[in-house]
Amino acid sequence: MTDPKFVAFSTQKGGAGKTTLTVLAASYLYYVRGLKVLVVDCDFPQYSIEDMRERDKELIECSPVFKKMFSDNMRLTKLAPYPVLSAQPENAMRKVREIIDDCEDEIDIVFFDLPGTVNNPGVVSILNCLDMVIVPVAADKVILESSLAFALKIQEWLTTGRTSVKQMYMLWNLVDAREKTDLYDQYEAVFEEYGLQTMKTKIPDTKKYRREGSKTLNRAVFRSTLVPPDKTLLKGTRLPELADELLGILNQ
Questions:
Q1: Is residue 67 part of a domain?
Q2: How, if at all, do strands 84-86 and 37-41 pair?
Q3: Average pLDDT of the chain?
């Protein structure tokens, strides 16, 4: 990659997994694939990713197991933790540009964690700069309707010139293996009728995606801003496949 690519997992419905997907994609691509990333937490006022980074830092101090994971990863990869920038949407792009200009190493991907409210001038200004918006969607009526409404709003803005997002994809998240595959095919046919593209990778509903470090439990970690997803937990998560598909789309 030559110029940084700007990407957001975004939707207006809480619980669809956008913050978790942002962290996991950033950590996997940075610590495992070696791409330089910047994560921008614009989800004011909760700043979930900033809070996660602070929890990770606390674990280094109080959990010998997590501290060893962190030290081993630093020794193996020679990588300091990727930067997490917290900024309100209206200030985010200015601060991102400053970081990119001041950074000695080129940044490959900037991930944005956006608030759910799109009718915000700051959010619109960020959307205007994005190379790709990924809308997590689940086979749950509330999440499905909310995510579809969000995607159609962005698509409406695209057709009217209010935003210039380069690409937008729906992403199946929280997929239950017991559900019939034709259910997703039927939903995707509806997406296609609306002119919406869907990523091929489907993310399963697995507790691994929520496994963070623990102050009391000596266990492998999957979701963290300071260490990569544990290799022993990767099987069946479809995270490597998601990373491959994401990079393939961005490099088209």
A1: yes
A2: parallel
A3: 92
Look up residue 52 and give its DSSP letter: H
Number of structural domains found in the chain:
1
Beta-strand pair 109-113/37-41: parallel
Structure confidence at residue 3 as a pLDDT band (50, 70, 90): confident
How is residue 110 written in tokens?
């900037």
Global pTM? Answer: 0.93
**Structure-token pair, residue 243:** 């990373």
* Distance, CA of 5 to CA of 10 (rounded, Å): 16
Residues 110 and 96: beta-carbon distance below 8 Å: yes
**Domain assignment present for 230:** no
CB 144 within 8 A of CB 187: yes
Tell me the CATH number at 64: 3.40.50.300
Q: Would you put residue 236 in left (φ > 0), alpha (ψ -120 to 50) or beta? A: left
Q: Identify the domain containing residue 133 by its residue range.
A: 5-213
Flag whether 133 is in a domain.
Answer: yes
Q: How confident is the model at residue 1 (pLDDT cuts 50, 70, 90)?
A: very low
Q: Is residue 227 a part of any domain in this protein?
A: no
pLDDT in tens, 199-217: 999 999 999 999 999 988 8
Give mean pLDDT, residues 69-96. 95
- How confident is the model at residue 83, as a pLDDT? 96
pLDDT above 70: residue 164: yes
Helix (H, G, I), strand (E, B) or coil at 170: strand
Q: Which two tokens stand for residue 49?
A: 């990713």
* Residue 78 Rama label (left phi>0; alpha psi -120 to 50; beta): left
Nearest partner of 16 among 124, 149, 139, 200, judged by Cα: 139
DSSP E strand stretches across 25-143: 37-41, 84-86, 109-113, 132-137
